[in-house]
Design a protein that fits this description.
The structure is a single chain. The chain is of the alpha+beta class and 112 residues long. The protein contains two helices and five strands, in the order αβββαββ. The protein starts with a helix and ends in a 9-residue tail after the last strand. The site of zinc ion has 5 residues, from helix 1.
Amino acid sequence: MDCIFCKIANGEIPATKVYEDDTVVAFNDLEPQAPTHILVIPKAHISSAAEITEENSAVISHIFEVIAKLSKDLDMTNGFRVVNNCGDWAGQTVKHIHFHVMSGRKFTWPAG
Ligand code: 5GP
Ligand code: ZN
């Protein structure tokens, strides 16, 4: 399968990784939308949030544990935003589930 985030997860494509363990990797977004902009992904391919099931959801809760840890390690004391784009209308361009973690500036709500 030709998936860029699978290739980042297995090291075929380089990325600036800020966290990695057996099931999850976090790396800097190539086109940051905030001073801190990290993508957190499962190493196993799940195409989107619409494909989360009882069988594969453990890694999703682990991703949120990793996000909480990163928020402390990377000093996101003033807050941070977690975004998941699911499907074309939401602007999902990479079909491997990923959570954007953005910090270092104020965000508006609702998002456009
Ligand atoms: P989406 O639009 O699917 O929610 O987000 C995809 C994100 O992946 C975008 O923010 C884009 O900048 C980032 N991205 C796409 N290709 C690469 C890549 O090869 N390396 C890194 N580090 N980020 C990428
Ligand atoms: Zn993938």
